[in-house]
Amino acid sequence: MAYEQRLIDRYKGVCALADGGSPGERDNARKIRDKMREQYPGIHEESFPPPPPQDAGFDPFRAWRTQGAAQDAGAGNPWDDLLGGRSWRDVAAEGLGWAARMAQEMSSLGTARAYAENMVEVSSRMLQSQKLQVTVKMGLRDLYSVAGNLNEAQRAEFARHVAEKVEAEMLNALNEAGGG
């Protein structure tokens, strides 16, 4: 059954989110993907057709390897071991997908650091009891916002950045006390 290209593109986008979005996006995308599969039978096969079979003819990417004596003698090909029987295209797509996920995660970690920088105030002061007090201040509304908007990895990055701010404040106090 031939579906319109825009429907296939939408299905592919939903599948991409189902495989690599944030946890909430993944769950919603999986539900939409399953519903689309039910509503449009065969859409997955049409959207992701199997690659055409390779004939035993000339392959420009493998031609340089087939000319060697080791290949003629029936020795195994080290590239096949490296690729695990997959095509270069599949390996490249997997690598690019990983790079895109890492870029997205790094971007989302930058968001967590920006939250920590803008929503958390760290200060120190000497108390009358001659004790140093290092204070972390964050509005309750901001706390709930961070808790509700950040995923687990972002929360960990947020906490790490707050800890770095506390560390910097403590080092500043130590330098002032040591005269350096």
Would you kindly provide a brief summary of this structure?
With 180 residues, the chain is mostly helical.
Topology order in helix (H) and strand (E) letters = HHHHHHHEEHH
Which stretches are poorly predicted, pLDDT < 50 over at least 5 residues? Answer: 63-74
Strand order of the largest sheet: 1-2
**Content-based structural category:** mainly alpha
Q: What kind of sheet is the major sheet?
A: 2 strands, antiparallel
General description of the model:
The chain is mainly alpha-helical and 180 residues long. Among the domains are: 1-50; 108-178, no CATH class. The chain is built from nine helices and two strands. Strands 1-2 form a two-stranded antiparallel sheet. A hairpin with a 5-residue loop joins strand 1 and strand 2. Helix 1 (5-20) packs antiparallel against helix 2. The longest helix has 32 residues, at 88-119. The termini are far apart.
Describe the structure using short key phrases.
single chain; 180 residues; mainly alpha; two-stranded antiparallel ribbon; 2 strands; 67% helix; 8% strand; elongated
How are the SSEs ordered, and which strands pair?
Elements: H1 5-20, H2 23-39, H3 43-47, H4 63-66, H5 69-72, H6 78-83, H7 88-119, E1 120-126, E2 132-138, H8 140-149, H9 152-178
Antiparallel strand pairs: 1-2
Helix pairs in contact: 1-2, 7-9
